[in-house]
Amino acid sequence: MKYAVISDIHANLEALLSVLSDIDALRPGFVVCLGDIVGYGADPNACVDIIRERNIPSVMGNHDAAAAGVTEPCNFNPAAREAALWTRNELTEENADFLAALPDSIETEHFLAVHGAISDPDKYILDYGDAEPEFYLMGRHRLCFFGHTHVPARHKSLSGPERFLVNPGSVGQPRDGNPRAAFLIYDTDTGIEFRRAEYDIASAQEKIIESGLDKRLAERLSRGW
Length: 225
Ligand code: ZN
Hints:
CATH topology: Purple Acid Phosphatase, chain A, domain 2
Number of strands: 9
Strand content: 15-25%
CATH superfamily: Metallo-dependent phosphatases
Shape: globular
Strand order of the largest sheet: 3-4-5-7-6
CATH class: Alpha Beta
Radius of gyration: 16 Å
Order of helices and strands: EHEHHHHEEHEEEEEHH
Bound molecules: zinc ion
Helix content: 25-40%
């Protein structure tokens, strides 16, 4: 079985279309999204429409929850809060309802999928210390995919049963110093392959600035952090 795992699209339509075009060429049997479909970028409805049309199962990210009105963006930084409220205003009622109904986790035969962490969708798994307690919450699963940090990562348990926590990185706002859109392919026969896709960064930046969103949200896309 071959899966594609995408995360943290953040309303970046150009990045999402580029990643999906690569994914289509790789022909996975199943695509799963780890949340934060919206927030920061200028195309929230177009991105949600694509996830819905393609029936891509997704978990709920903290930005999805804030944009859909499930939570208030109280603990967001000012640019993120402003973007969340802008997105809330932009979203169609149907798309807001769709985001509000997303689950906190998805299970397949081969893995568990969450946004931030199993213990808390808002937790950042930045290092082994953050990952360690999560290994004990994986139940029957040997593999758990997570997002939220926007940095590709792979943590392997150093004690107990062999378990893995893996982050594909971010489609729409990479933060590992590489501005190309990140995703991964998981082939249950051959393992995990981290991948990157070039996309039209300038167009995504232009739309953010035209929308009146914080221009730093545009600038960071060309730096990739
Ligand atoms: Zn995110």
